[in-house]
Write a structure and sequence with these properties.
The complex is a heterodimer of chains A (196) and B (405).
Chain A (H helix, E strand, L loop, with lengths): L7 E4 L3 H13 L5 E4 L5 H8 L3 E5 L5 H10 L7 E3 L6 H10 L1 E6 L4 H49 L3 H15 L3 H16 L1
Parallel strand pairs in A: 1-2, 1-3
Antiparallel strand pairs in A: 3-5, 4-5
Chain B lengths: L2 E7 L6 H8 L2 H4 L2 E7 L3 H10 L4 E5 L2 H6 L9 E6 L2 E2 L1 E6 H9 L8 H17 L5 E5 L5 H12 L8 E5 L5 H6 L5 E5 L2 H7 L3 E6 H4 L6 E6 H6 L1 H19 L4 H9 L8 H8 L2 E5 L2 E4 L4 E2 L10 H13 L7 H10 L2 H8 L21 E2 L8 E2 L15 H9 L1
Parallel strand pairs in B: 1-2, 1-3, 7-8, 7-9
Antiparallel strand pairs in B: 3-11, 4-11, 5-14, 6-9, 6-10, 12-13, 15-16
The chains are: A alpha/beta (196), B alpha/beta (405).
Chain lengths: 196, 405
């Protein structure tokens, strides 16, 4: 079965995620993939491409406009249905959870669309996981910086060595049933106030 | 035990009753633990209702009807047992179009007939000069905005399909689109008309409450399965919303309500833009305000009652503009999308004044009129259409035929 005869349009304001999806589609043998990052002028692109499948992130504020295009435009001829088949509840659930929405030309066979949708879902999920991990790494780095700051304040103001300063932070956190970073944050903030 | 429920909303002034129910503790008092989720499009709200991420949502009045008629790519079964107020929209135009309309007789008083006749003169002059058609933005196809804009245009002799272009645009983009000339006008809810007026991007030429006074706008849509399975939960939800609507309706609370709406998690706009709108003082240009009676009613005049005649009017206009076909079966689906029976069941214990009828003749009340209700003190109207037409839901076939001929 050839994949290259399906025309696919990916609309995503997030350029990195869009390229991750495009990459997946190309790996699966889809050659006719077009990516757009904004909806301005998309009506003309859809008219020209006549895509069989449109993949768009569910949070895109322009989806209402896109759906009106399918409904009203005389130039977009074939009716477009979301997903493959309304009875395929699990797919739809997984897609919405991942943040994918897809519009598919009526009459396309389910086994042709399912792999595209599954790929988009898994790549969207992978992307969110990546973004979350990046966010966590960033906040861990931030936390470490705050704790270091607090340690050095204690070392300076109380003449402690690093180990004792950290021990003091940890003990205070345990006593108050709070996180070390919270104790460090309030210490840094208080020190900041006192300096002024 | 607290019951968990997720409710979606779009950041608009008319999400006020829903946000107040949460922030003022009316939901909690009913034993509900509500999670509010802000959404960026009506399509996303509909999809999340369909897959059960949301159990209920602030939606456009025609949406439950369109969903139950299967008109969406993904159509969940929805029930609308509670309306989130009456009125609240306006029509804004670019400064250039506003000036042209003024030259053609519009006198900045928001009169839909005068403004409409002026617009018609501009449309005709443009056609004679070979200029492109004017382009208007609406927020969604199945929206009060689209349907009332079309009603206003058609009643003024402007064919919404042949004489102008109507496009869909997310409301936050509208003031900019007006400024840059991508559109010439739009019909949207608040705060987006105020935004355009105050920033000098355009001028408000008429308002929903003058096109059709006391007219329906947003409703609370609930997944039909949940409505059947958990009637107690639904009743608690409706009671919480009703008490919030009463609170929102009191003028003394408007400053606090504006502050609730203004927070970054909600609308994220300055409270000083919202408070005047709640008080009915509508900005029509940068430094010009007009006091509009009944601009947005969250509570008064049975503003939360899901009239089936409202559902049928939306349906009649959907048929009129070719969005669905008319049949007794479709009309039945439309009417039953709104559920006054559930509203009454939920509010009976509160001894509130509940309308006895589920449908009314729309546009028949010329003055405020006391009506039959479960308790004294229910006053409806005036509720007229600006062109003096009347919508009798019992004669919906005739109404549609007359409008389409």
């Amino acid at each position: 079965m050839k994949n290259s005869d399906l025309t696919i349009l990916v609309i995503d304001e997030n350029a990195i995620r869009a390229s991750v999806i495009e990459d997946g589609l190309r790996q699966a043998g889809h050659d006719n993939v077009t990516v757009v990052h904004e909806l301005l002028g998309v009506a003309r692109i859809i008219e020209r491409l006549a895509p069989d499948v449109i993949v768009i992130d569910i949070e895109n504020p322009n989806r209402d406009m896109l759906e009106s295009l399918f409904l009203l435009s005389r130039s977009v001829k074939r009716p477009i249905a979301m997903f493959v088949d309304r009875s395929d509840a699990d797919s739809i659930q997984a897609a919405v959870e991942a943040g994918v929405s897809a519009y598919v030309v009526d009459g396309l066979r389910k086994e042709r669309i399912k792999p595209i949708l599954d790929m988009a879902i898994s790549r969207f999920n992978a992307f969110s996981r990546m973004a979350r991990e990046l966010e966590e790494a960033k906040s861990q780095l931030e936390n470490r910086k705050v704790i270091d700051r607090a340690k050095s304040i204690l070392m300076k103001s109380r003449g402690l060595d690093e180990e004792t300063a950290y021990g003091l932070l940890r003990r205070t956190a345990m006593d108050q049933n709070r996180k070390i970073v919270e104790i460090a944050q309030s210490l840094v903030m208080t020190a900041g106030l006192l300096e002024k | 035990m607290m019951q968990d429920i997720s409710i979606g909303f779009v950041p608009l002034l008319d999400s006020a009753v829903l946000l107040a129910a949460q922030e003022k503790g009316f939901f909690a008092a009913e034993g509900l633990s509500v999670k509010l989720t802000r959404e960026t499009s009506w399509s996303a709200i509909r999809d999340r209702l369909a897959v059960g991420h949301l159990q209920a949502a602030h939606v456009l009045g025609p949406m439950p009807i369109a969903a139950n008629l299967g008109l969406f790519p993904l159509s969940p079964s929805l029930v609308a047992p509670f309306a989130l107020g009456l009125g609240g929209n306006a029509i804004a135009v670019s400064n250039a179009l506003g000036a042209a309309m003024e030259e053609a007789g519009d006198n900045r008083d928001l009169d839909p007939a005068r403004a409409g006749q002026a617009l018609k003169a501009v449309v005709e002059a443009r056609r004679a000069a070979g200029l492109p058609r004017l382009r208007f933005g609406v927020v969604y196809i199945f929206s009060g905005h689209n349907l009332e804009l079309r009603y206003w245009l058609a009643a003024n002799g402007i064919d919404p399909d042949a004489d102008v272009d109507i496009v869909v645009l997310p409301p936050p983009f509208m003031p900019d689109a007006l400024m840059t000339g991508r559109i010439d006008g739009y019909c949207a809810g608040e705060p987006w008309n105020t935004m355009a007026a105050r920033s000098g991007a355009g001028r408000v030429v008429t308002v929903k409450s003058r096109i059709w006074r006391s007219s329906p706008e947003k409703v609370l849509a609930i997944a039909a399965t949940l409505c059947e399975e958990q009637p107690d939960l639904i009743d608690a939800l409706i009671r919480g919303l009703y008490k919030a609507a009463v609170w929102c309706g009191a003028r003394d609370n408007h400053a606090e309500l504006a502050a609730i709406l203004a927070t970054p998690d909600h609308l994220g706009v300055d409270a000083s833009l919202l408070k005047p709108v709640l008080d009915g003082a509508i900005a029509i240009a940068a430094t010009e305000e007009v006091q509009v009676e009944d601009f947005f009613l969250p509570c008064e005049k049975a503003a939360t009652f899901p009239w089936q005649s409202h559902a049928l009017w939306f349906y009649s206009q959907m048929v009129r503009w070719g969005l669905c076909s008319h049949s007794p079966r479709n009309a039945g689906i439309a009417a039953n999308s709104y559920r006054p029976d559930i509203y009454r069941r939920a509010l009976k214990p509160l001894n509130a004044a509940l309308p006895g009828a589920s449908l009314k003749v729309e546009g028949a009340l010329l003055v405020p009129t006391p009506v039959g209700a479960s308790a004294a003190g229910l006053i409806l109207g005036p509720d007229g259409f600006f062109d003096g037409r009347i919508f009798d839901p019992d004669r919906i076939g005739d109404y549609i035929r007359e409008q389409m001929s």
